[in-house]
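Service request form, structural biology core

Requester: graduate student, group of Dr. S.
Request type: structure prediction, single chain
Budget code: on file
Notes: please return the result as structure tokens.

Sequence provided:
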Amino acid sequence: METKLSQLATLAQKDKTTGYLALLSETLGRANQGSMPDDLRLLVDTVVNQENVGFVIGRQVLTELVKSLGAGVITNHDLRKCITQSTLSLLQPRIVSYEEQVNSLRFQLADLLEAEEEWTEAARVLMGISLDSGSRALPDEEKFRVYIRIVRLLLEDEDSVQAETYYNRAASLSHSTTDRETQLQFKLCQARISDYARKFLEAAMRYHELSWAADIDEEERKELLSSAVTCAVLAPAGPNRSRILASLYRDERSSDLATYNILSKMFLDHILRPVEIKSFERTLKPHQLARIAISSNDRLASTVDEDESSEPYTSKRTGPSTVLDRAVMEHNLLASSKIYNNITFRGLGALLDLSPGAAETMARKMIEQGRLKGSIDQVDKLIWFDGGREEDDAQGKAGGLGDVEQTTEDTGAPLTKRWDMQIRTTAANVEVIVQHMAMKGLIPAAAVAS
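Core staff response, request fulfilled:
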């Protein structure tokens, strides 16, 4: 190779381009590829760094090399990767002169690394691409694609912090494309970023929206639906989560999921048991099992009193330890509010496996945030739950036949009002059951009429 390069150096400037291109073609086409990386490195070093070659010739030779590598002239994966990395290392100091060729090589190297599932390395290679350098700046749509690809690669290795940085850059360019596939990739990145950031409510809504996209494969849509259910379960208990749980529960596809059991129990406000939680925990990803810290104020408020510690079966736990732990405890607290009118701190602690102080702290936070309706009596150590619920009202209107005018006596006593409402709701539900039984012929129609 050195001899041939020396001969080319003696040629006239106008003949050098043809000579170097012929030598490149000969090197790439040889049967014995053992010395190819070294020979190509020597050739690239000569055309790039030798002053007697010239910038114009160097660019033409490099453009042809990049084109040949991209066309798959070298089929061996490792050999192609070695040549690409070697060429990039030689061009890096002269990137201003050969920016277009360097960017093309970086795209090719990222493809090779992605095929090896070296996600982070592939992302770093793409990060090195000059997207905003003078006259060779890429159009916004191309930048958007690059940013989305970087985000996707980083999330594969669960590097959500750096992925969010590039996601924010992509978000400012999201208007630049009308390509359906790219838009779906962007929405998926949105959902996954929310998932990793523990914004589970937002993630659940985005996953569920994507699960309806007809352009996505059926199996992938099922996976997205499963992710939506998982995030909805992990979301903070409250009205907003109840709405997304209702949407998922009414989705007929959810019944085929492994997580349908816990979804249905959460939607129906059933208390979750440890066995069910353990089964669901096995389906979670590492970031969804992250441990959470308890603030010093909450730890102090959750301390077990001496009187309480002498009581049998009093838990010593001062708060939830994981995201799942917190979600389940908040759900069970919300479910207990649908069962009981009131509950003692100790009773709630036994239900949630928390100390009485920790149970009170959790209830207080949920009431403050508007996720639980009720009040706390610290003198009697009782939590009173507000019995007024929209879903009960909706079911208790003339057997579900619509709004009717109801006249009630104002006794001025809240417990009497609650008792009256429970009687009215129960009577309406019994009426609905009787009507259904009559329609199915299980009881005589005459009995219903009477």
